[in-house]
Amino acid sequence: MRLILLGPPGSGKGTQGARLARRLKVPLISTGDMFRAHVKGGTELGLKVKGILDAGELVPDEIVVRMVRGRLGEPDVEKGFLLDGFPRTLRQAELLDGMLAEMRIGIDKVIELLVPDDEIVRRLGGRRVCPECGAVYHVESKPPQREGRCDRDGAELAQRDDDREEVVRRRLRVYAGQAAPLTGFYRSRGVLAPVDGSGSAERIFDRIAEAL
After folding, report:
1. Is residue 88 flagged as an active site residue?
2. Is the overall model pTM greater than 0.70, yes or no?
3. Is position 202 within any domain?
């Protein structure tokens, strides 16, 4: 199967994407991972991307699509793939659509995880990170044994700036503005499958499986 996984920040795309890829035995393709791999490998694209990111700018759609095209040409995607984090905008979706048409393949389903804003604020707002080892906790669902301290090294836990409520709500507004035309694009093609992203990870995965 060839799938796309959409959802706002904090919707659980990472968790569900990894689980779905394992179940279907297809590679999970993340543009973020591709950026890091190209930068680490010192490729021509990687050097270009590094310069753009270091300048605090967004990587142009054409470069992102070029990276995705290269990845989709690798042998392990012959039986399918799961795209996570791409496309993010209508323009990217149109470029991807054209690229896939040239490759004579198509998208079977676009899974859209739907989670209320207040639930996402609760999820992200309660997240705490150890600055020393990178361990992640949650004040409600995964609290440390000692309040405010990492179980591994005792370091004081911190809240990431982009997990603060005002920042999360701003990110959600940006996502909503981008998502409306994007989901409309895939709805018009009959491949959009909205899935309730609330509740336990197991129940959400069951709903995704039902949608497929």
Report:
1. yes
2. yes
3. yes
- Predicted local confidence at residue 135, as pLDDT: 94
Which residue range is the domain that position 193 belongs to?
2-115+179-211
d(C-alpha 36, C-alpha 55), whole Å: 16
Q: Is residue 164 part of a domain?
A: no
Catalytic residue, chosen from 160, 173, 189, 203, is 160
Q: Which positions of the chain have pLDDT values less than 70? A: none
| 79 φ/ψ angles, rounded to the nearest 5 degrees | -95, 5
Q: Which of 50, 91, 164, 171 is catalytic?
A: 171
pLDDT of amino acid 162:
85
β-strand pairing of 136-138 with 127-129: antiparallel
- Tokens 């048409």 identify what position? 101
**Total number of domains constituting the chain:** 1
Q: Does residue 171 have an active-site annotation?
A: yes
